[in-house]
Amino acid sequence: MFQTDLLKGKRILITGGGTGLGFSMGRRFLELGASLVICGRRPEVLTAAAAKLGGETGGKVETQVCDVRDAEAVEKMAEAIWAEGPLDCLVNNAAGNFIARSEELSPRAIDAVLGIVLRGSAYCTTACGRRWIKAGHKASVLSIITTYAWTGSAYVLPSAMAKAGVLAMTRSLAVEWGGKGVRLNAIAPGPFPTAGAWERLVPRPELAQVFESKNPLKRVGEHIELANLASFLLSDFAGYINGEVVTIDGGEWLQGAGQFNFLERLTDADWESLKPKKK
Length: 279
What we know:
Elements: E1 11-15, H1 20-31, E2 35-40, H2 43-57, E3 61-65, H3 71-84, E4 89-92, H4 107-135, E5 139-144, H5 148-151, H6 157-178, E6 182-189, H7 197-201, H8 205-213, H9 223-234, E7 245-248, H10 252-257, H11 268-274
Parallel strand pairs: 1-2, 1-4, 2-3, 4-5, 5-6, 6-7
Helix pairs in contact: 1-2, 1-9, 3-4, 4-6
């Protein structure tokens, strides 16, 4: 359903683009005609990812070593990128998360997640936004958040706080910058397995099975499904979508939100017993 030139001419920066969902989105963007910049903290990971992405798609992939928690480093990265030409899109994908009982969190643990997710997204977005607005350059920002940005979630408190902040940033700047040609949207994914992160968040196989199937579709998401959604939202076909959050979780958060959704556990006999008795 996607035209092969859907993103032709667009230069896209993906933070944390060397692994996981960032890598998958980058590959799809390249397939659809974009050129790519990926950034991260580990140069060896970026180099390997760029080689693989370029080899698989034939597209242009640049790398920038940058710790998005460092505002000065983000500014230097933006300067280096713009020296070669302006970006057209930014994907705030870099993230950090772990499970913990909140009363046992140290300040350092809290800061680690807030630094990457909240401050990093804000630093990258404003660094790009300043340049786009000054040049009158139309652009788009897409941030990867989560459904617990609005519901909250136990045991991932720093991530919930940070993602809620990124959601607020998205909606705030969509209004402030929309008239200046800069759109901001977000995607809230459900379970999309990625190497490394999955093991940290789901420590036992039986828990993973519950986590992966606790949605009406009873399955995890495929990376291509999220990558296609991201491609559409960054494309010109989505030019009137601004300040929106698109959930892609198989209906997971809605299933958890409904007060009586637990009744899916009832048996046929239970349902029969609940029917009005004939007089």
